[in-house]
Predict the structure.
Amino acid sequence: MAHNPLAPEWLSSPADANTLTDALWPSSARRTDGGAITIGGVTAVDLAARFGTPLYVIDETDARTRATELRAAFDAEFARIGTTVRVYYAAKAFLSTEVARWMVDAGLNIDVCSGGELAVALAAGVAPGRIGFHGNNKSRAEIDDATRVGVGTIIIDSPIEIERVAEAAGRHGLVQNVRLRVNSGVHAHTHEFLATSHEDQKFGVVFEDAPALVAAIRAQPSLNFLGLHCHIGSQIFGVDGFAESASRLLSLQADLLAGGPVPELNLGGGFGIAYTSVDDPSPVADLAAALADIVADECARRGIPVPVIAIEPGRVIIGPAGVTLYEVGTTKPVRIGENTRLYVSVDGGMSDNARPALYGAEYSVRIADRVSDAAPALVRVAGKHCESGDIVVDADYLPGDVAPGDLLMVPATGAYCWSLASNYNYVGRPAVVAVVHGEARVIVRGETIDDLLARDAGVSTRSTSEAGSTNDMKESTR
Ligand SMILES: Cc1ncc(COP(=O)(O)O)c(C=O)c1O
């Protein structure tokens, strides 16, 4: 099949547009003899019949295994250089009480960045001491709640927060552990990074200001300075950006040690995953080994003790464990000159996956209820929203006979899809179902029309039967 000039350069027409590329899919994903995709032992056909579409599906074993293996890899590599690691799961990627418990079971801590995320983590039974609290504009009420319940650490993001956190902790009669988020001047995305002397962004404090701010923290009797924090970006494939940032932070660490202890260093999150067949992120074990080497070398060079290391990965744990299931509503060939792109519209879109519209993020797609011998056709999977940028998959190849009624699955949607979901066009947010050992269960129910109307002060009570559904989801998901 010839390359369609409308396709991006990196995308070539596959020999078989039914193949599931391992790196993109949850580890349990495969096709049944009948051709349907099955995740966690449950077929796409059964999931759609029982829960409706669109539907977020998380392979529980896959998510738990990624968390466990990541922690084991970092534990082993940092033990090799004589220290320990605290792994915080970045809850912004995806948070529900179940998922928080899976992460704690795997020995992880939880990083939250709002009162809402804190409430979910606490509702999951996460011990407050295992929680780190982030945010560039934590409200006074959020700071008060976080200190009162006893969160393990608060990450101070601006000079103004030093007094706010100190005051709240003092009022509750306790000493609060804090980190200071600094801008190392390193900004990374995928395989490139930019190193500048200053960063023009809302998070963290200016690198050169850190010594004075640490002194201010140390002067507060109700604060205990744990160390520096830095997050250089997301969806990072290599180690070079982390290496440059760690080097800068450890030079600062060496200076700060003159004024008192600096027991920890938090290197943030950002480890990348594959969304398309050409994405090639570093394996977690390689990242762990490389980061441990960098930290050991930089500490040795400066003659300082190796601190306890903290990291905050989100996407790399939950992203590949999740898929989204849609049903095709319409297909439409659009001729552009000599070439054709087949638009395939599904029953969700930017309300359940905002990343393509927000960041131009790329995804992949497969027909989920059957295989087909039809020649591959270049498709663009569009959503149902009133926005031309409402694209789920900008470009991929599907069997050319893809048709209304087919189920589609988009892999690697576990991170930053449900958590960024909206009600645009009053479309209800889909349910989240966990699959494991051939069983599927709802871990977050989908929104009904009643849910959507409930917040409108002008609407009087309606019964569920009158309300119908927002997007053909079955009752069992609500
Ligand atoms: C401070 C901080 N930590 C951790 C993360 C998690 O990043 P990722 O999910 O890419 O690992 C983010 C993401 O934006 C972040 O801002």
In short: Residues 90, 92-93, 134, 231, 234, 268-271, 312-316, 415 surround pyridoxal-5'-phosphate (CB under 6 Å).
